[in-house]
Amino acid sequence: MADGKIHGRVLHAGAATAPMIRLDAPLSFWGGFDPVTGRIIDHAHPQVGESLTGRVVVIPGSRGSSGTPGVLAESLRRATGPAGLVVQKADINLTAGAVAAKALYDRACPIVLLDDASFAEVGTWNGVAIATDGAVSPDDPDGAAP
Amino acid sequence: MGSPVRLDEREQRWLSGTDGAAMQLAMQMMVTAADVSSAAEFVEIEFAHINSSFYSGQVSLDFAEFLLANGGSFAVPTHTNASLIDCSTPGLRAERDHPVEVGGARRLMEIYAELGASAMWSCAPYAEPTGRPGKGAHIVGSESNAVSFFNSVLGARTNKYGDFIDVCAAMTGRVPLAGLHTDAGRRASHVFDVTGLSADDQDDPTLPHVLGIILGHEAGSAIPVIVGLGSASEDDLKAIAAAGGTSGAVEMFHVVGITPEAPTLDAATGGVAPTRRTIVDSALIRSTRSRLSTSSTGPLRAVCLGTPHFTASEFAGLRTALDGRSVDGRVQLLVTTSRAVLAEIGSVGWDEELRAAGVQIVLDTCTYYTPRARGVAGLVMTNSAKWAYYAPGILGVEVAFGSLQECVDAAVSGRVGDRG
């Protein structure tokens, strides 16, 4: 990453630049995330109480309920959802939520898959920029050049 | 980025929009799913059990209305997962209190009927004959416990298809040939050895629930295989499936000597040496079980059974546990089940007998969904690890987890006892 960019695999294309939140465990959006408030409500999740609204969420993947795509898409409809997702496994359910929100409401939530080392690296950034080609770069609101 | 999946003439026509916008969206979704799962081809399915019929917000309605308005229909027999509402007990979640959710759920039930889905409204499709696909059948499962049960107990083949994909697969009659649809994708690599458990632990009826929670916590994306389990009924395997899909993402597990693809450990692993081994001892069982309760004693408000939906054999267990006694007047004992299972137990008069003992039978839905079902508040007891795991976060209730017998004893006495 000489250019400061990491190149991932596009699961759902789009662009987003937003503050980063790294989730330390997979999340079931259904039952674990409230699409009205945009916050994690799974008591067993290490980041319970955190907001995902408008952030690039660096998440290993989804788990648990098959209601995850619906809740993700509902949060995108309500504009309480993530700005984008960086994932560690090729997750068809997160992707389905993003595809539905795009088709029904033209709401974007790009999803990029990274290898383990790149995934860990992105999880240390303050902010993340996702490009339509799957390039992922740091976006630091305090330190970035204009 | 081009998709590597090969499309036949019909699939290309669907994708082009010639057959309408519903089929176009369905095929787009399946091509995306194939791309994400790196599948080179599709495989035809025989059956679908869908979760998109569950109201998750306005998006559920918008998606279904879009399909209905644009000529959507199902290519294979398609059954509905549990709903938010029980049409036979409208007071459980009153429409005047929750007009958006209850009204939305009712409309969603109508739309999926219009689209041609069968009104099963159950998270335990395998408890009725039309919901039991054969060994080796490629199908679509969505609800996490049903996916795991289909794969593990029936030997049918499905990945966990969440909202939207489940319906798009049922409309196109196909899924990407990947994951649990392939032989290689079904091999166990993580051994859970319960050989060292005492006879008391092995006989404890909560063991399958607790074991499922451990599988979910520990297995990650690996397929677990349990070694050393003395016996397991279908209801026990249902409990493992439900808990494993709750604490983690277990979509299939093997039990050596019990599940159909695991006559031996070698058969379950495909002859490949397992990469991980977890020794499940009594201490792990005890600590995992105790974490399923947020409160262990005190006055009880409700007992919730039937997550996933109670089977006829579980109703038999409930009758035995009640042993002629009645539920305390201060406690609600709610049992969620399906229309088909109610018809089955109704044919031998068990429903009337149980209602006379103060048991409330609830159809189509579950008691841990929000908006909260009437009376499910304060301290609630359950025999389901899945209910115990979800309810504190979703409903804000205190939960005591125990066996069916402990739940029934508490419902009769009005108090949760100490397990000791």
The main sheet of chain A orders its strands as 1-10-9-3-6-7-8-2
Q: Which regions of chain B contain 5 or more consecutive residues with pLDDT less than 50? A: none
**Kindly, what is the distance between the CA atoms of the first and last residues of chain A, rounded to a whole number of angstroms?**
21 Å
Q: How does the overall form of chain A come out from the CA principal axes? A: globular
Largest sheet composition of chain A: 8 strands, mixed
H/E element string of chain A? Answer: EEEHEEEHEHEHEE
Average predicted local confidence, pLDDT of chain A:
92
- Helix segment tally of chain A: 4
User: Overall mean pLDDT score of chain B?
Assistant: 94
The helix count of chain B comes to 16
Determine the strand fraction of chain B and express it as a percent band: 5-15%
- Residues in helices of chain B, as a percent range: 25-40%
**CATH fold name of the largest domain in chain B:** Aconitase, domain 3
Sheet with the most strands: spatial strand order of chain B: 12-11-10-13-14
Please estimate the helix content of chain A: 10-25%
Described by the principal axes of the CA atoms, the overall outline of chain B is globular
Give a structural overview:
In chain A, 24% of the residues lie in helices and 25% in strands. Chain A has four helices and ten strands. In chain A, helix 2 (68-77) runs parallel beside helix 3. The longest helix of chain A is centred in the C-terminal third of the chain and has 14 residues, at 92-105. Chain B folds into three domains: 9-181, Aconitase, domain 3 (2-Layer Sandwich); 187-290, no CATH class; 293-413, Aconitase, domain 3 (2-Layer Sandwich). Helix content of chain B is 39%, strand content 14%. Chain B contains 16 helices and 15 strands. Chain A binds chain B through residues 10-13, 26, 30-32, 35, 41-44, 48, 61-71, 73-74, 77-78, 89-93, 95-97, 99-101, 103-105, and chain B through 1, 25, 28-29, 32-33, 35-38, 51-52, 54, 56-60, 62-63, 66, 81, 142-144, 147, 159-166, 221, 245-249, 389-390, 392-394.
